[in-house]
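Because discrete structure vocabularies remain unfamiliar, we first show an illustrative case, written as a sequence plus integers encoding its fold.
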Amino acid sequence: MPDRDILRALAGRIAEIAALPVQDETRAIYRALNGLHPIRPAVMVDELPWNQLNADGELTLQCEDPYLRAVEDGMRKLLYRFNHCKGDLLIDPFYSLGRSVSIGGIGLKVVEDTLAADHGNHIVAHQYHDQLSDHAVLDLMHDQEITVDDEDTESKRELLDSLFGDLLPIRVTGVRHGYSFAPWDLISMLRGVGPLLMSLYDEPEYMHAFMRKITDIQLKTLATLEEKNLLESYIPTIHCTPALTDELPGEMPGGRVTRRNLWGRGTAQIFASVSPAMHDEFDLKYQAEFFKGFGLVYYGCCEPLHDKIDVVKKLPNLRKISITPWADVDMSADQMGKDYVLSSKPNPAAVAVPVLDEELLREDILKTLHACKRNGTPCEFILKDISGVSYNPKNLTRWADVVMDTVRNF
């Protein structure tokens, strides 16, 4: 089958789904939740182990052209999520084509050894080589070079428009990944976890110097993206969570997009074991500086924050806090009250078994629902970081069905 016919079939199906009334209902759920007046908790499933899911061949790529294969891959994965674990997945009535913008490095490179236990899975074990033992690396760090190739963007837009634009319009979108500030993720890969944590105690001045430099670099990158009007104002999700809201202004006069239009997202996952005071000193103070002027902020990822809510609250325009399986959900909801969205991250290990334990899953979800109801805390359930499903894709389907049924009937 020609590439054109393959993509048209996929685009046509996406357009049909995008036109369903449930999409407007989903948008309303997103907006109400982020406005702190939820209709009900939102449910999302993302970051799937694709190598374990192609039991029926629906993820098998058929296009010949390399670029169109990438387009096909995105479409097939979107449809897979809708068909098997959609939860509150939002599907828009257009194809998002990211503008061709390249953001260069900062002068340092990650050196690592990896070990894969599951062939074809992008989730692997890492052993990082320390690149920061010599303080002279600070002199190697430099600003990120930003290049824009609008000819490439227009070429791709014309191509896709000619193939399926009559079915699924092409919408060129700006840069979205510039809103994230997670410097300790990078530092942990440049230094290694053990040396990094020891350095916080043994070399605090050096760690602050590194954070000062990387913060300045990323602030300049953000400012450049803003000045060149390369940012994207339409953000339906931010790191797997619902992001639509009535509180951000959309594009400014003249079509400009500034940080005021945006959600920002910050995290310091490697700080799971540091004290609240150290978390505040080495991360949150820099986060507050980076996110000054943003419309709304979402903080956290896999690090437990139940004993750090009071310092996290210092972030400007904070709206959403990630609460992981290793956090105390009762303590978290008690401190968050009605002022923030509790972004619950149920343990992905629940689906990494031959058969999902539905009773245990329901108990886990109900515990969070009760904690949030007691405190009037809006919440969402985001299953992500899924490294495996024991080659049983039905685990994802049942997870989504059980959680949706639980939140709807609570």
Summary: DSSP finds twelve helices and 15 strands in the chain. The mean pLDDT is 95.
